[in-house]
């Protein structure tokens, strides 16, 4: 049979790293590869109680269709939370999506024509590339340091590329590096976007998982021209299984994005929107998030301490103030994919995500992403120690 796929399917392929990650997900492996929240932070009992309340008080409505924008009372709560974080918005600007990932897909569908330039951090979130790739953009990437994107490099890209559609950034505790963009750079980013007339896509699922340092205002809070699209998510602050996130955008953009959402899936699960809404009504969301921060801080410190103790001094690492990941840089001759496939997995049963997969262009092979939220503290120490032993031999 002639499977006459559309041209864009050329860009939709499983990656070699994906197969390696499947191996890393086996139960006898200590995996730093996932991006999962710690299961112990899920408020199972509270959500059971909320579920019972929803069923007894609003059962038929919770099981009915709602609207593509999502449950009104949930959107009202999110508008308030956004305002508290410095983003001025209204109900017209905010709607509910199936996690941040759907936001990436909808924005890609709405803005990217074949050959358009999308600017990303280097490295960047793999899930964003998966969402953008089918629309066949050209990637231009901006190097980062410990304060985020290099703004001079960004300006050079904007100055020399007429077809830039948007700049994609994960400003807090970036996936994969754990780096946070400084306040000054956020302001400069918006100034540059205004000057060169491009959009910004601010993907912010980790913003509230800050366990150290000062909260920094979202990029959207500096937006005076409606050119920043902000994506938020319940995945890391409540549960990824509920598949709930939100978009904040200028009214016309929000309306158009919501039309695309309607075409994709009609709406989010009414029941899940009720659960999140009633959870926020019945319990204190900020207290819940605080308990996540406390646990992740301990886990992050355990991992960084183990990295300092067990890895060779030629390995550098980021020390994130929040989020789920640290990023290791091995000596240049060490290919993190080969190391994991040939030594770390078979000998030590330890996994990470090889860094090459996070580079849209100009792949660098000597990095890996290490997740600390998913593993126990005991396994963090055991796994990093095993990585240290193998790395010392390998180097
Ligand atoms: C930077 C970033 N954006 C978006 C997502 C998508 O998350 P969700 O769709 O669960 O909100 C993730 C998930 O790990 C992420 O790391």
**Strand order, biggest sheet?**
2-9-8-7-6-3-4-5
In the CATH scheme, the class of the largest domain would be Alpha Beta
Radius of gyration, whole Å:
21 Å
CATH topology of the largest domain: Aspartate Aminotransferase, domain 2
Arithmetic mean pLDDT: 95
Q: In the residues, how many domains can be counted?
A: 2
Percent of residues in helices:
40-55%
Which percent band covers the strand fraction? Answer: 5-15%
CATH architecture of the largest domain: 3-Layer(aba) Sandwich
Class by helix and strand content?
A: alpha/beta
CATH-defined superfamily of the largest domain: Type I PLP-dependent aspartate aminotransferase-like (Major domain)
| Total beta strand runs | 14
* End-to-end separation: 50 Å
3D shape: globular
Q: Could you explain the architecture of this structure?
A:
The model has no long low-confidence stretch (mean pLDDT 95). This protein has twelve helices and 14 strands. The chain folds into two domains: 7-43 and 287-394, Aspartate Aminotransferase, domain 1; 45-282, Type I PLP-dependent aspartate aminotransferase-like (Major domain) (Aspartate Aminotransferase, domain 2, 3-Layer(aba) Sandwich), CATH 3.40.640. By secondary structure, the protein is of the alpha/beta class. A hairpin with a 7-residue loop joins β10 and β11 (325-329). It starts with 15 loop residues before the first helix and ends with a helix. Residues 35, 99-101, 125, 127, 170, 175, 203, 205, 233, 235, 240, 245 line the site of pyridoxal-5'-phosphate. This is PLP-dependent aminotransferase family protein.
